[in-house]
Write a structure and sequence with these properties.
Layout: H1 8-24, H2 39-46, E1 56-59, H3 60-69, E2 81-96, H4 105-113, E3 120-123, H5 126-139, E4 144-147, H6 151-159, E5 165-169, H7 170-178, E6 183-187, E7 213-221, H8 226-240, H9 243-251, E8 255-258, H10 261-282
Parallel strand pairs: 3-4, 3-5
Antiparallel strand pairs: 1-7, 2-5, 2-6, 2-7, 2-8
Helix pairs in contact: 1-8, 3-10
Length: about 290
Amino acid sequence: VPYPAGQGTDIATRFLADHLSDALGQPFMVENVGGAGGMIGAQMAARAPADGYTLVMGTNATHVLNPYLYSSVGFDPENDFEPVILTGTLPMVLVTHPESPFNSVHEVLAAARNGGPSSDIATPSTSARMVLELLKEQSRTPLFMRPYKSSAMAIIGVTTGQVPLSIDTITATRRHINERSLKAIAVTSGRRTELLPGVPTVAEQGLAGFEMIAWNALYAPKGTPPHVIEHINRKLQGLLSRAEARKHLNTIGFEPGGGSPQDLANFAAAERRKWRPVIEKAGLKAN
């Protein structure tokens, strides 16, 4: 997992790894190798032996966004990996302190335009940054990124008043929302999600067409034997189709995926076609 423990990707991956251990009769160890927006861990996986014993939980950041944001990522997301399966999607959510005066995207943007504190937003991931950039572009509002190294640190930043708002996955924030230590303002999916019932989308709060979701997908190093790829795909297909597994993943804020390795390759290619022009038009570069 190319992110710290506690990130949405990490939480979902650990659940999947436990079930792969049962299904294949072999232990799966989840190793967190965070840093550089997921690039350090992804690069390690790209250089690992192509024997099926090292896999990486790639994301829309590692396999789509980062190559357009950074001058060098140290690997080729299209040619250095074998796609295995899209494991699921993670809608993002804009959150604030429960005692914050902000209850809508409109209120956040209005305060930011007047030089209020809502201009600063915590971003613990590349996906969070893309949500922020889209908010800035579509609302024409001065918003400022406050980068954090992990979801846990960003959540602490909001709950202790260091920063007024954060953008993160529902997976990382849902427990805090349910415990009312965070307040959800809006989800970034195109439609409302059952993962956070009653929370409106950004789009329906005045920014028509707004949509940005994170996703996770399992990859293997290039050259991993096809029969190994197919075997792991079948086992995860079976898990992701089970009602109890889907229910659990929903509970942690993860919408289960599925499909063939080629389906994943096609999906990632479509995501690159979508986001490359957005990033280039905005002139975005990682710091």
